[in-house]
Amino acid sequence: MQAGHLFSVIIPMRNEEENIARCLTSLQHLQIAAEEFEVIVVDNGSGDHSVEVARQFQQSINLKILERPGIYISGARNAGAGVARGSYLAFLDADCEAKPDWLSQAASMISRGSPGIFGSFYLIPDGSSWVARNWYGDRERKESGEVSDLPGGDLFVSRELFCRLQGFDESIQTNEDFEFCQRARADGMSICSLPELSVIHWGTPQSVAGFFRRHRWHGMHVLRVFLRNLPALYNFKAVALAFYTVACVAAMLAGGIVAARSGRFELMIGATAALLAPPLLLGLRAAVASRRLRPVAPMTLLFLIYAVARAWSLLDWRNWMSRAAL
Fold first, then answer.
1. Which stretch of 70-74, 89-93, 113-117 has the lowest confidence by average pLDDT?
2. d(CA 261, CA 239)
3. Are residues 245 and 196 in the same domain?
4. How crowded is the C-beta side of 185, counted as CA atoms within 13 Å?
5. Are residues 155 and 288 in the same domain?
6. In the chain, what percentage of residues exceed pLDDT 70?
7. Deepest of 20, 48, 127, 186, by most Cβ within 10 A of its Cβ?
């Protein structure tokens, strides 16, 4: 492998047979010289044909495939960074599709004086369902400029800075990108969002069930990151909503028992109203932000599902334990 790459594109992968071809095809069509970038796919024990599909691209792009089963996505990203030769690491998820000017736009950003970390939030695929359109289309941030964090599936950082920060935390399975960005900010680095670097996220949940599963999974290690640095209040809103939802559901169950025994429904009705209040207020806020009333009902429902999913994650005892204990 030749030295002198500007970018090392690092793609963690596990059972992405349906997505990895689309992802790598998009990299074939990048508007940047082939010698300016390399691609490193890190497979985390796929049980399908993901690796075989990825190998088909080794003749058309400068592609290396690493097989690292049994690790978290944070570890897969770190493994790719460990063999990277590029001056900048470009983290891309296997279910994402890059636009032709993805790396050329990033190169332009670097030539103008790169901030510490930059990237963008995801775009949803055309023809997405009401779930994706309302939650990820209207709610997802598209602003340009400094932000608190960026998703790990569309994130750029210099290899030097990444090494100084010691990479992603391999002890957590989710929230690793947020945690990494907070360490960077504590180190004095800025996090910059550039909408022109957005990639299409084909893994965007399209159904209510998929939306619930996604946020239950994303909530796995949110509390762990929160507890590591209490004064910083990382993830405070998400953690507070999860605890509040657990309390409301417990009160509803207690109210149901009281109602069954005494015929008094006050506690159950009050707990139900308390459970619905935050999603309704958040739905109204989303509607105000979009300057449309139509999103109130779908966003209220989605915020309720989000709250229940995060509460579910909070109650899963496996999420409280370290990886070594599992």
1. 113-117
2. 33
3. no
4. 16
5. no
6. 93
7. 20
Cα atoms in the Cβ-side hemisphere of radius 13 Å centred on 254: 10
Q: Which residues contact 299 (CB under 8 A, 6 or more apart)?
A: 134, 135, 138, 139, 282, 283, 286, 287
Which tokens hold the place of 65? Answer: 């495939």
pLDDT > 70? residue 52 = yes
Per-residue pLDDT of 213-244, as tens digits, reads 999 998 888 888 888 778 777 889 999 999 99
Which are the contacts of 41, defined by CB distance < 8 A and separation ≥ 6? 11, 13, 20, 24, 54, 63, 64, 65, 66, 80, 94
For residue 228, give the nearest of 276, 172, 147 by alpha carbon: 172
Give rounded-to-5 percent helix, strand, coil for the chain. 50, 15, 35
Q: Which residues contact 237 (CB under 8 A, 6 or more apart)?
A: none
- Mean residue pLDDT of the chain comes to 90
70 and 184 part of one domain? yes
Q: What is residue 286's predicted lDDT score, i.e. its pLDDT?
A: 84
3-state secondary structure 99-150: CCCHHHHHHHHHHCCCCCEEECCCECCCCCCHHHHHHHHHCCCCCCEECCCC
In tens, the pLDDT along 24-48 reads: 999 999 999 989 999 999 999 999 9
Tokens of 197: 């670097």
Average pLDDT over residues 141-159: 86
Query: How many structural domains are present in the chain?
Result: 2
Cα separation, 16 vs 226, in Å, equals 30
Greatest CA span in the chain, whole angstroms? Answer: 78
Are 150 and 256 within one domain? Answer: no
